[in-house]
Amino acid sequence: MSGLFGMLSTTARSLESQRYGLDAAGQNIANINTPGYSRRVVDFGAVPPTSERLNAGNGVEVLGVRRLRDRFFDRRLFQENPAQHRETALAEALGVVESTLGSPNATLNARLNQFFDGFSGLAQAPTSSTARADVLAKGQALAGELRATDSRFQQAQLDADRRIRANVDEINSLANRLASLNDRIANSDDSGTMTLRDEQNEVVKTLSSYVDIETIDLPNGTVQVSFGRGKPLVIADVAYAVTVQNEPTTGFARLYSGVTDVTAAIGGGTVAGLIAARDVNIPGYRASLDTLAYEVVQQVNTLHDAGFTLGGVDAPPFFQPLATVAGAASQIALDPTVAANATLIAAGSVAATPGDNGTARGLAALRDARVLSGNSATFTGFYTDLVYGVGQDRAIAVSEGTIRGEVVQQIENLRDGVSGVSLDEEAASMMRFQRAYEASARFFTTINETLDVLMSLGR
Amino acid sequence: MRVTFGSIFRNGVVDINRTAEELARRQREVSSGRRIHLPSDDPSAMATAMGERGEMAVLDQFTQTTDSVDSRLTVADTVYTDVLNRLTNVQTRAAGGRSTILSQTQRDALAGEIRGAASAILTAVNTSYRGMYLFSGGQSLTPPYTAGPPISPYQGDGNVQSVDVARDRSVQVTFDGGAILQGSAAADVFQTLEALATAVQTGNMAGIDQGLADVGQAFDRVTNAQTQIGIELARLPEDRARLVTQRQSADARRSHAEDANLAESIAAMSQADAAHRAALGSLASVGRQSLMDYLK
User: Most exposed of A56, A217, A252, A368 (fewest Cβ within 10 Å)?
Assistant: First the structure.
């Protein structure tokens, strides 16, 4: 049985322990908005009695402080986060492309229709200088719109490329930070690493928003991170930089881990979404635009070449001839001689017959000619298919991003269920520790008064 | 499951963003009257709307062409009417010239009237529309005949031009003046009228009879040509009505694809507004409730 002075020591330990509990609650409340913070709980243990008989024990002691974390939820988050960010980045990049297409009544389709309207007007008045000037203006507007649309598509590609380069800088910065955290965690005792490990977790999560990563937790508390199908990013306290090299033909960024090109191996995260937009989606749209421009030039020139000018002689090509489909949309332009002299436009199909409108009618009828997609699509139908494709690609990316976002949100909720701070719970803890502290203090007062009584016996 | 401060606010903010997005979308629908602003809003509807707008552009072009053709054929019809009136007048005068009791002065006057009719017919067939001669076939920059004397032979060609007033229908808008005023005859109507005038002037009865027969043939050719124009002119209102109907149908399909149903959009906007207010209110309300409030 401990003496009164022993009880005072027990009470002092209790007061210290309850204060420790209050301190943990205060720490939790203080970090309620700190990203990645894991709530702390204090583990208490009863101090066992000494060897004396009839000793109830020696109060309480703090066994330690734990951060509550479930690695399963972290892993799930690191797996789902890249998928959400890939779709979101893709949707954003395609949103830029989509906004360049214009509204339904102000698209390239309108320019195509107006171009053929011009020839229809010329067919009504083959000798009219106004009708010829109108055809020239509408031809130039069509060529200009094709070039401008291609330029906007190219700009969207360049924007995606710039963002990829910026993201690589972010990845390298995060990798360096993680390597530094690994170093500090490996060289600290366990009790001092809780905050560092929260930060480490948050850095890995942020990394997973840029690229899909694989993580391995090592016993010493460090995290090993790889990306791009097994290429090292962070091992212990070493960060392996992702480098960028310019692709020789396009000048676009290729991502390297050491000497290995990992561009195609990145399957998730913002970088993957931007790479998909830059290397797959937008080039596809540009190829379609090139096909459209090339066929416009080919079909119009074929008919125009066979026609005759107002002066009754063989007509030059209406558009400058193009050698290849690739790059057609960026190069389409009216033939300079035609652009400078509207009488060179071929309206007639019979020589020396200025009133003949056979060629103009044929050119106007091209509007309905199925000359694309294996002779199944008209010019406007082909462009409509392109617009549909852009819209569908973005709608799918937005939808996928939303679905993935909800999955991530659910995982974060589950993770918060373990690691997050609940104000009500902390308030209850505060009450609990406050009451225990008050009771201990009261017990201390009681022992003190008992000692006073004991002391007064000798007077 | 533990419900934490962070998850409550994160979920609340996500919900607020979602309801705000829906409210903004519905508000834009109501203010613009359109359901689609970008292809991704509804790719299929966007494609439909673009297709229908293209179809409407084609139909508008055909309507404009139809109006132009109508004007042009009306001018040609007027020319034919004028020519027929002149030929009828010539027939009357030539028939009068068959009388044996006419003085030379009277014969000279009749011949002058016949020559005047020829001149008027020349003016009529040399009519141009928007700078193009209607009766020169493909040589629309060249007048069909040049005044004399003598009036020139036909200077146009037989390459008559048509324009499309629908995908499957075209209408002839220039005419072969030579075929109308001469056809397979040995002389054109001007030579015929000059010969007739000379016959009347000289009292050549056989010549007058031959001239009247030739004028009769010319009359028939012009009448046939005018009949053809009349048939086309009669069909044009039907063409126009069909184009209007087709355009209305295309516009209805376009509207169905891209326009907002305002009643539905306004109701949805009210609903989205209520949902947004509820999301804001619920987060504010949840944020206020805490055990901390009960601690003294």
Answer: A56
